[in-house]
Amino acid sequence: MANSELRVFYGTSHSELGEKIVKHLGLTAGDIKISRFSGGEIYARIAENVRGQSCVIIQTCTDQVNADLMELFIIIDAMKRASASSIAAVIPHFGYARQDRKAASREPISARLVANLLETAGADRVVAMDLHSDQIQGFFNIPVDTLTAIPIITNYIKSKNLKDPVVIAPDTGRVKVAKKLADRIGAKLAILHKVRSGHHQSEITHVVGEVKNKTVILTDDMIDTAGTITSGIDALRQASCNSDVYVTATHGIFSGPAVERMTKANCAEVIVTDTLPIPKEKQFQGLKILSTADLLAQAIRRNYENQSITSLFD
After folding, report:
1. Closest CA to 148 of 64, 251, 257
2. Which of 175, 204, 218, 253 could be bridged to 169 by S-S, CB 3.0 to 4.6 A?
């Protein structure tokens, strides 16, 4: 057992999830004061003694990603200057994760920059859910725990007893994750062959695998504008899959035309988690939101008690 006390705080980006995690831990949320100056600058003050304590700050990245990250950096800095013994940043949806490489000349690797800024601010550990690519872990010189929502999604899908299920990877990059989901629910695997012509521009050329008359489960790490997902659904229906199409993703961003596109897609169900807040205006018929609070709470507790969290990765 750790010698220092565990103190868990959360920022303003997703206070509902933060409060759920704290309750799962059986704790009271740490007292933190966050406000904005009239010029837009963020102010944060830790309103209790954290000297020598093990501090956790929960802050996800929403569509206000720049403000969310800046608030996180400032809170971490405040904790460091208040002499916290350790600082863990729990970032369920890690911002800028898609900018993880140079796809064209003179581009930044923004995910690496965010990693550098977190370390510079004073974070000792990062906990995230389903990073866009595993290589992001290598951008850090501090421990990174990448949890996955697969067990949560698997349990929910199993409860539905779907007939002749086939899990669909939206591209070759998601095959490994899709295969894990398929194995867990006893389903076959198929792959969409996707060609990207630019940012947020892609085309599904054909389906690799048997989907005719099957119940398909299209899985991805996130749904942003829903362009990739809906074009994939169109390709699957052209391949004569069962009319019941299920979509799963860890992060439901639903930006721009996403809600309209998903509504028109007429899926049997769209299954996401609560790594981001999904306001009422972005919710639609068939949307199912699963909680990650217990999983994240277990990771926080096990890190604090210096226990293995390997089983949580599974």
Report:
1. 251
2. 175
Q: How confident is residue 310, by pLDDT bands cut at 50, 70 and 90?
A: confident
Please count the residues of the chain: 314
Determine contact, residues 249/276, Cβ cutoff 8 Å: no
State pLDDT tens for residues 258-289: 999 999 999 999 999 999 999 999 999 999 99
The DSSP secondary structure of 43-68, one letter per residue, reads EEEE-S--TT-EEEEE----TTHHHH
226-261 burial, b for 16+ CB within 10 Å, e for fewer? bbbbbbbbebbbebebbebbbbbbbbbbbeeebbeb
Instruction: Report the C-alpha gap between 32 and 139 in whole angstroms.
Output: 29
Amino acid sitting at position 287: L
226, 173, 178, 88: CA torsion to nearest 10:
-80
CATH fit for domain 6-148+293-313, picks 3.20.20.10, 3.40.50.720, 3.40.50.2020, 3.40.50.300:
3.40.50.2020
Query: What does CATH list as the number for 150-290?
Result: 3.40.50.2020
CB 39 within 8 Å of CB 26: no
Q: Which two tokens stand for residue 244?
A: 């019941």
Map out the domains of the chain as residue ranges.
6-148+293-313, 150-290
pLDDT at 314 over 60: yes
Helix, strand counts (H, E) of the chain: 9, 14
pLDDT (tens digit, 9 = 90+) per residue, 54-103? 999 999 999 999 999 999 999 999 999 999 999 999 999 999 999 999 98
- Give the pair of three-digit tokens for residue 278: 């999904």
Torsions phi, psi of 230, nearest 5? Answer: -70, -35
Catalytic residues, by residue number, are 194
